[in-house]
Amino acid sequence: MTADQNSNKTMRSYRLKDTGSIDNLNLVTEDIPSVQRGEVLVRVKASALNYRDLAMIYGDYPGEIHNNLIPLSDGAGEIVAVGEGVRRFQVGDRVAGNFTREWFGGKRPDYIEPYGSHSDGWLTEYKVLNPELLVSIPSHLTYEQAATLPCAAVTAWNALHGPQPLSAGDTVLTLGSGGVSVFAIQLAKLLGLNVIATTSSDRKAEKLKALGAEKVINYKTTPNWGEVAKDLTDGRGVNRVVEVGGPATIHQSLQAIAPGNELALIGVLTKTGDKIGYFDLFGKASTRTIGVGSRSDFEAMNRVIEDKALAPVVDSVFPFEEAKKAYEYLESQTFFGKIVISHQ
Amino acid sequence: MTADQNSNKTMRSYRLKDTGSIDNLNLVTEDIPSVQRGEVLVRVKASALNYRDLAMIYGDYPGEIHNNLIPLSDGAGEIVAVGEGVRRFQVGDRVAGNFTREWFGGKRPDYIEPYGSHSDGWLTEYKVLNPELLVSIPSHLTYEQAATLPCAAVTAWNALHGPQPLSAGDTVLTLGSGGVSVFAIQLAKLLGLNVIATTSSDRKAEKLKALGAEKVINYKTTPNWGEVAKDLTDGRGVNRVVEVGGPATIHQSLQAIAPGNELALIGVLTKTGDKIGYFDLFGKASTRTIGVGSRSDFEAMNRVIEDKALAPVVDSVFPFEEAKKAYEYLESQTFFGKIVISHQ
Amino acid sequence: MTADQNSNKTMRSYRLKDTGSIDNLNLVTEDIPSVQRGEVLVRVKASALNYRDLAMIYGDYPGEIHNNLIPLSDGAGEIVAVGEGVRRFQVGDRVAGNFTREWFGGKRPDYIEPYGSHSDGWLTEYKVLNPELLVSIPSHLTYEQAATLPCAAVTAWNALHGPQPLSAGDTVLTLGSGGVSVFAIQLAKLLGLNVIATTSSDRKAEKLKALGAEKVINYKTTPNWGEVAKDLTDGRGVNRVVEVGGPATIHQSLQAIAPGNELALIGVLTKTGDKIGYFDLFGKASTRTIGVGSRSDFEAMNRVIEDKALAPVVDSVFPFEEAKKAYEYLESQTFFGKIVISHQ
Amino acid sequence: MTADQNSNKTMRSYRLKDTGSIDNLNLVTEDIPSVQRGEVLVRVKASALNYRDLAMIYGDYPGEIHNNLIPLSDGAGEIVAVGEGVRRFQVGDRVAGNFTREWFGGKRPDYIEPYGSHSDGWLTEYKVLNPELLVSIPSHLTYEQAATLPCAAVTAWNALHGPQPLSAGDTVLTLGSGGVSVFAIQLAKLLGLNVIATTSSDRKAEKLKALGAEKVINYKTTPNWGEVAKDLTDGRGVNRVVEVGGPATIHQSLQAIAPGNELALIGVLTKTGDKIGYFDLFGKASTRTIGVGSRSDFEAMNRVIEDKALAPVVDSVFPFEEAKKAYEYLESQTFFGKIVISHQ
């Protein structure tokens, strides 16, 4: 036990009483949990929002959410106490939670209860955890930056990896400027890949170019952006689509892809769109769903992020007390990159 | 030059004058081509039929077919002459053609003109070829057996391999008893895989079991065969579907597959069916199209076939003179395995 | 807490007081540890011996061994109590320990303290553990059989897998009839591989053939067994050597291997032998060291073992009270397969 | 046939009469070969030297060299005539020869007779070839630059790829400033890898840094360069050694490598050195021999070279008439990068 805890026996958490409104997030005071054998206590320093967190609020998330849940899948913090027998971390280590918890590598176990939906999440000041559920964060990142990694960055990393590896010089198509897409652009550049991005405004196009996208298509003024993306590769087609859209974007994505290459399916941002015929897939693209990723994936990504000093794009940081404003800002869809909450 | 050629300066070939009818296949006599530097002359001993060959007859094949084409993609024979500088084969070697010709490995070149559709095929007595377009056939096979391999067996092999490898103990679902499905069952057993097969009759079910399928579902009496296949894996789902059906079968295939596992898309046997929603794929299956395979794939498969002495299932052998009857039999859809033409 | 524990508050363990003699193994009585949050209590039902356990006794193991250590890396048992929040296992589940503990997949962490050398092992009646350190055992195995898997079988599995995958029809060379070699033969057969084995007696040769080795070479009467193994593959060479010997066997192993194929280095059974020249490796074989394996590897192997109902070769089972006799029998080197201790 | 040929029926070639001296290279005039069916005629525009070419001169190359051989494995040129039925290339296409000729992908065939050792090489003005033995060269390269690729660049590419893939952020150790090492540095940077290089002079060190090597060690003043390289990775060790040295360098390379990572064995530059003990390999490094590579490898590399506009380091270009001076310069060992001969 550390001085930190002795001087402060209680902590604050947000808990979601019922679904339906951001106002159902209640700020409560509760006891700081104590570490037992094999556990660590994390002082959460920052958390980050994803679209799924908004879906959770509105009861629009598949699966039953337990009542009085602490929300948010993503967070980073400092180890402030370690239980007996812990060797993985020491007090003072800087860590983040792995989105898919006990998925360490290999096949994903079926007993996982993701943070912020099936088990308590990170919108709190302290968490007691099995240290295996945490990863070390890159040394050059602030806690605010590190909190953005678990869901969006690991998803982007796995969209760019997988059974059909990309090679330097290949071209990736990203859609829009949400967290996954922005990380996909940044990571693609570290891997020697070329990027074509889509966006809805010239202002965002400039930002995407500054991140390294060689070419940007305005999908509002260019509704056939998939065909245009294909033309931009001299007609060969792109080698991967980071498909964050869903039913409404997949048809254009299928226009963009080179035969035999892969659509990485991530998206649930749109709910409806024309269905796909068998012959839209056959001979066209491979498809694979990205379910975030394992701890091994997270750690492999962090080695590259650290080595190349990648700086996550943090759109804005809200203080812990104003967490609801962070949700409202997420709802506004006017951001670029990640929305973070500081717990410090 | 060998005695074989000296005694016989002409050969017989079938050529397809116009599409529309099996009767447009004309048996013609023409000169045996001579080998030049770097070439080999093959005495074709057997050829085999695939559904695509029937589609070709009826003008139902995508892409323009050149007039007076020698049909059939699949054939095997003996090297009877070698040109200057050839080291890959010697006179007397037993060979088969590689369906995708100049696709040796790596990315498929775009200049390939497949046999029997874009370039002359194997329904002839002699062929002059670049020796790189041929593979050695397993020593235990007759020419009739070897002729069945290029299209159906290589397709089945690649459906069972690819970027997401199967592991011994995994379960494969095959559809029906055409050439690809029968090879898929036989190869799956050599690889330590379990097989669930579908078929339309009890008689065929017995044959599929004799080939090694642990479980067989009658898809006529069990229209929800996909769900049943999933139940047969204790609800986990199958690890691969060798999807030879197409639009009319893919929905049940999607019911059968375990999340994250792959539908290997091969089929064009059906033309119509309900379309697929994005959420039928998302979180369900990966998909990949099998376009037969490279020479490296063919050679890797042959090593296993030889080592395990796999015997291709030849339903019937027609003499060269009765090649049209082989087409008619293919049209009848009453066969099990492969239909072969003997050129000896 | 279960009835099992209520009726019995103490347990027996063997602890190694000092190195030097099997007699330094002391049977002690101590309290059964209690489960805390996130932990499980295992009633150990069986444990198994490996050469390293003997090396530990004689102080012949690299690295410092802590005093009063409970020995043995391998064990299996039943979950008899689960702490708060455990979802991975339930009371009654049958489990084994993963040799490399916190190595779940991906890169091996450097903080691992293997059982029976750096941390307390399995020669005890109860163990409290993080449930992530355990794997479910195949349902057809007894505890005695399952206890043999963690070190020897996972090592054999990884020797047959790795970055350069073997293909059905490839040939594996195994050395002798220790635990790793016997598992390598059994697993190789499940994977469609051919096996050439070496041994020192005709009696053992018969046993190896019964397990599936197609060919067996007596290395005592055939000192150039590596060359002979190569001849047995029609001069092509074997595709993998499961190299359990070490310095004294590697030269013959290098004679046996096909160019570009891999020696899987496992062995420390021999200490001395002629050194290797650069040109003994260059253009000859790849080499890779097998360090047992990750939990993902163990679980992948168990799926195959269960599906194919592989029966581990248990040479003999000693009662817990006679554990020292098991060590002495290991020392005699007259066994075939695994030596097991029953804790029931 | 083209105007080029009509106006010039003869060509010049160098042929090696006997081994022993550079002066045994005779410049001869001979007929330009004519293309036959399935062949192309290449006007060779440039060729490049490798150490093996000097070994050939001095009879120091393993295997029998045929008399009157045209030397050099590496060359690039323009297609000036195509035979009947050639679809892969057209007149005017820019190509290079693939070092390992008929190795297209998959397993290397055993009938390959490499250029400039077992079959006539590229130190000539025209070559007739099977078009499958050629690859298209990146459009931004001159013929002089492209001629450097077949042996050195493909070897470097494969040293950085293979069964155990490197990841962006990993560190590669290169030895000296020969062709393979210089390409390895350049390619490593395109793949997001870090580079530690060794060299013998400060002047060369500056050049290696200019190519992208983050750190350079002078191996003359730092005989324990392997340990120093390891220290430069914070003690973790490098992830790959491009081992072009051989017996005299492998011990330091084994000091540098991180456990489980790979020494890519290429080198025959040194002939003698201390032998390796089993325990120098066991638990230390994996090893693999690089035998240049397949056409698929060459084409994959060219896609990256073209996309990233990599410029091969050409030390100097000698005119065709002064080819012997190029050999003498190679012998001097004072160059940096590749020595090229222009045939224009």
Terminal Cα span of chain A = 20 Å
The CATH C-level class name of the largest domain in chain A: Alpha Beta
CATH superfamily of the largest domain in chain A: Medium-chain alcohol dehydrogenases, catalytic domain
Structural class of chain A: alpha/beta
Helix content of chain A: 25-40%
- Structural domains of chain A: how many: 2
- Using the alpha-carbon principal axes, give the shape of chain A: globular
Number of strands of chain A: 15
**Average pLDDT figure of chain A:** 94
Rg of chain A computed from alpha carbons, rounded to a whole number of angstroms: 20 Å
Quaternary status: homotetramer
Number of helices of chain A: 11
Order of helices and strands of chain A, N to C?
HEEEHEEEEHHEHEHEHEHEHEHEHE
User: If interface size is counted as residues with C-beta under 8 Å from the partner's C-beta, which chains form the largest one?
Assistant: A-B, 27 and 27 residues
As residue ranges, the low-confidence spans of chain A are 1-6
| Strand coverage percent of chain A | 25-35%
CATH topology of the largest domain in chain A: Quinone Oxidoreductase, Chain A, domain 1
Described by strand count, sense and barrel closure, the largest sheet of chain A is: 7 strands, mixed
CATH architecture of the largest domain in chain A: Alpha-Beta Complex
